[in-house]
Amino acid sequence: MLIDVDINNLENKNYLDDLFINAHFSNLSINCNILKGSFFSDSFHYFPITNNDQTFSSLYFRNYNDISNFYSEKFYNNFLNKKDSFKTFKQIFVLGSNSGNNYYSNLLQFLPRIYFNKKSNIKIAIHRNSSNKFRKFIEKILQSLKINFNFVFLDDNFYFFLESEFPQFLNLENSVKILKNFIKPNINNRNSKKIYVTREDSNYRKIINEGDVITLLREKEYKVINPQLYEIDEQIEIFANAEKIIAPHGSNLANIIFCRPGTEILEISPTFKENEKFFNDRFADLSALNNLKHNKIICDTVDVDTHSISAKKYIHPSVLSQSNYYKNLIVKIQDLNNLV
After folding, report:
1. Which of 175, 280, 311, 313 has fewest C-beta within 10 Å?
2. Every domain of the chain and the residues it spans
3. What pLDDT does residue 177 have?
4. Which CATH number describes the domain made up of 194-339?
């Protein structure tokens, strides 16, 4: 069976030094433990396993991920039978990215760890499903840091990483601190101060009566923004310059971390069910970290006729059919009018 090692309770410091590099930003008071050497990992949970069957859930557990399967006898026996056949990569910086290309996860869970790399030339592992926009954004960051790099693309599989590095996952507060420390969007008068962020190109949480919503908001001088039409750095600049933002619950609201204090956020949201409450306060928590004024308008939900290929691949059918997260929304126009 796999062993879960809590590095916070390790008494042998030499043992810890053999396993990890400890990188830190003194000005931010943030440490990052980077697993070094040889280890196995999947490309969904990104949960490393050493040659000695050790794992480190205190460092590599991400919110909303269920890692209990890794400690089952069934998983362990299957792992032992297959591990010699896993594809090997050598001298990799395992950054990773969300297998479904979720922007919230890519921006806030995966990306901040790139700043703890200390090498001038690296190979970075990310999931093949990552968007071109996210790849370009990583490229711009590494160019600004004067780091030469190549991408290594992971598929849905387990891998063996030899002589590699794997930074731990950070909590939300530290991730936000790091991103805001390194990413400085331009503040200017070109961008609209009042924006509505549409999800018209999404497979779920689209606004069914969006025509009525847009008519109302344009009367109140809101500009409609479709994030799909902008590169990530352009999206960040738009959010950073806004004073009022209205948007359906969705990953692009992760960009509110770059908003100036006092910016008003109105989140259009379904009523989340008991087993999906972790979505409920996601953007309220980000707003609190950044001193933003967050409010929410609750909408009725409508079933989605056809889910995306990615959703059907990674999400259980019962979740897709029952979860309000994977439904479309109807906004009560009078309620919206009262709030804006």
Report:
1. 313
2. 3-170, 194-339
3. 96
4. 3.40.50
